[in-house]
Write a sequence for this structure.
């Protein structure tokens, strides 16, 4: 007997753009989340909006050159805070000239299909929700840990946006009174303790007073990567630093469990490449200090790696198209 | 010319129940949020679920005795964490015997109309959203400060529930490393520093070493209320303690601004009676340490006072009824 209903294969595709402080990346993504084509350039971060928009156009033209399918839209992920309701970049610290800039309207002039604008943490959360580690779940907290800490939240099966679409700046919850200065101007932020930048700074301080470590020996620079590398080689100080990092992340994530009650926490960003080393300490913190009803929530590594935001911004364009069809 | 459409006056009413650790309160609430009748008793907190459910029935019978209108449902606000999706109380610390207890099903047996169950912080947030200080806004963070700290969130025009409906336990975000023990078992929680209980404990400690204060003089006990009273009388130590309290609350609320991007923060609970004294310090913290895009968000006192949860739980029953009608 034949199946009663046959859904036709979804042949829609969308463009995802990940506009970052160092790279602009564009991809053609299909309805299964597969990247069909991609292109990237170093961001002309100091050149001003016109040049950056021209970069985006150049990259998307390249990937659209031989796109046979119906392109339903383009999603652009941008560093925040950006008012994605009004479509205006308020003041992007990593990109010169994006101050009160009507980013969505200017992008829209370039394309015949709808433009979606999204804060980068939220776009990455959407990527993991639709096609990554949070697939099929309704409540997801995505945490990205790299030079800073950002995030995005899916709650009750919907993207959490908040006023001006600026929800999810979880790197700027205060975790220490009168604490370390944060790039945001605040003190004691999660980002100021848990980011890769903060880990490297702690490592440089600690290495100065420690004779018994390979960190910084031979005048080599110390960054997050070198701390993990030294830890793998058995360096005691490096392992202490990594254990401390896991504890800081565990403490921040435990707070997020209580605040959002997610089904899962997905960890992305550069530091997530070292997730296997961080996970035991992180899990131990959650198991000890989360309230009992929250202890069994899984904390996992992002499945899409560095593509969460790229795929997520395309997914937002596909979702918007599906919503238009429903109306 | 007559108006084209005349909406009939909404004559629906619902019952709200606020089940707390010290009092059970019930009210008949109309579609404008007005309390038409109310009743309360001290909670038989150690007597077990049967007795507490009998209390609720007795109170609701009393207020329904002469309710002429159509009662569309009952909303029950309960201390958390309660799995409001499954309707099961996991383990309510303040009420004996509510462990794995099918609270919604047992309540439903008592009533001919639908029962809605909600965590107390969320119910109070809904009260302020529909009928209080957050009326007409889509993004609200409600913070209740009394013996503990709780909360509830409205985001993008919807109630934020999360896994098992347990979102909004904002009192248990960690604000200090290796910090003060919290009743939840954690360390350094917002509740362990910012609650009325924590303020009183700090005051007792400080008064011991201070000759120049009225706090605790004549062997009198020190609680939150007496600290504010002494501050009003010009007591230096009391004013320092209150300023510190405002700073702690400001720090927690600044984190919540970044995390949720609300249109407004509404402060309820016992300590909100002293909101006017706390507001300048609180506002100053936000204005200094929130990221610029978040600084203009208002922090206000709950408009419904101690009735936020009572009215909010009835509002949830009214909303559920409206949703049923739409289907």
């Amino acid at each position: 007997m034949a199946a009663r209903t046959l859904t036709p294969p979804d042949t829609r595709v969308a463009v995802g753009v990940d506009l970052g402080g160092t790279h602009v990346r564009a991809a053609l993504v299909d309805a299964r989340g597969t990247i069909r084509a991609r292109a990237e350039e170093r961001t002309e971060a100091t050149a001003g909006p016109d040049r950056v928009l021209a970069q985006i156009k150049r990259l998307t033209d390249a990937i659209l050159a031989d796109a046979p399918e119906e392109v339903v839209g383009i999603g652009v992920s941008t560093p925040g805070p950006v008012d994605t309701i009004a479509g205006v970049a308020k003041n992007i610290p990593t990109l010169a000239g994006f101050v009160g800039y009507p980013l969505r309207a200017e992008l829209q002039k370039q394309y015949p299909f709808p433009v979606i604008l999204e804060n980068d943490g939220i776009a990455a959360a959407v990527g993991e929700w639709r096609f990554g580690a949070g697939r099929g779940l309704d409540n997801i907290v995505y945490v990205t840990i790299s030079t800073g800490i950002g995030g995005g939240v899916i709650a009750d099966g919907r993207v959490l946006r908040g006023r001006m679409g600026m929800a999810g700046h979880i790197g700027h919850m205060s975790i220490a009174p009168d604490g370390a200065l944060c790039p945001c101007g605040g003190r004691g932020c999660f980002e100021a303790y848990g980011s890769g930048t903060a880990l490297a700074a702690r490592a440089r301080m600690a290495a100065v007073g420690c004779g018994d470590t390979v960190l910084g020996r031979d005048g080599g620079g110390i960054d997050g990567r070198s701390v993990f590398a030294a830890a793998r080689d058995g360096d005691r100080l490096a392992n202490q630093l990594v254990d401390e990092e896991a504890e800081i992340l565990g403490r921040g994530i435990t707070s997020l469990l209580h605040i959002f009650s997610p089904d899962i926490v997905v960890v992305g960003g550069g530091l997530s490449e070292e997730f296997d080393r961080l996970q035991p300490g992180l899990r131990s913190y959650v198991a000890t200090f989360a309230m009992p009803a929250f202890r069994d929530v899984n904390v996992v590594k992002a499945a899409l790696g560095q593509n969460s935001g790229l795929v997520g911004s395309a997914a937002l364009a596909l979702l918007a198209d599906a919503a238009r069809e429903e109306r």
Summary: The mean pLDDT of chain B is 94. The first strand of chain B starts at residue 13 and ends at 19. Chain B touches chain A through 49 residues (CB under 8 Å).
